[in-house]
Amino acid sequence: MTVVNFNLKAQEEETEDKKKFSFNGSIDAYYRVNFGAPNDENAIYPGSSFANLPGFALGMANVVASYEGAKVGFVADLVFGPRGEDAIFNSPLLRPGGSSNIVNQLYAYWNVSETVTLTFGNFNTFLGYEVISPTGNFNYSTSYLFSYGPFSHTGLKADFAISDDFSFMLAVMNPTDATEYNPNGKYAFGAQVGYKGQYLNFITDDGAFEIDFTGGFDLSDDFYLGINGAYFDNDGVGFAGGAIYPQYSTSDKFTIGLRGEYFVESGDFGAIGTGVEDSSVIAATLTGSYVVGDLTIKPELRLDSASDDAFVDTDLMPTKSLSSFILAAIYAF
Fold this sequence. Notes:
InterPro entries: BBP2. By secondary structure, the chain is mainly beta.
């Protein structure tokens, strides 16, 4: 009888362990066209990351395997395709020919207590309103603020859940974008303070620093307002800006939202592409989101208006503005 009980208990524990494993991810593709600007090899796109390829184009395949235990767990997050290559852009430069250029995240964690979690490895950044995966963003194209903040870090972070409303995080990491290893023996340090879904983030890296606020509010059952603001400085060269994300749900299947962003460079930062110091840009992006099961269709209109010539028109003459349309399909599994 004792043997039977032991076997049943072992089977129950094995079944329970299997339930802790999960496998999910997404794929995305899109169509992009510029209005009043070239759509061939002469095409110029906004200085922000992702969704910048002409015609019918690929995003990425994102495959995430994870294990969530009571005390310990891991996440292995792999990306394939142009968006994934842009997300891990520095890995091939650090170690040409290396196989880690498909790694978006790779970390283990330990729940030391009910209030303290340690994470060790490569994890996506804690700064900013937007993320790499298109399933985590409302707009399909990304903002300037997201594009020029860090994408990922490799290091050790400690998260403290002080209360249901208040959280705190400290991190020590390799230099920004050095996700495979530390190339110079220097380290970056980060911190985050969270209160009721509002987050103040800070990172310092070899004299450069960025401070970032990310948050949002449910103004009603159907209306949400997201907010992001950031300031980055590296010896007088950097950027500052702010973005708002109003989103209104007309039904369970359709939501419409706007991203309005102002982004300004200090010195010759070079993000906008004007070749002029202290340039600025206003970008307005109107996105619809229609959900059909696990598939989301996103039509998007975007207008970028810079203070100086950053784009070209169909005659290849410099111009300050660019308008474009994107139709994206995102499937999450």
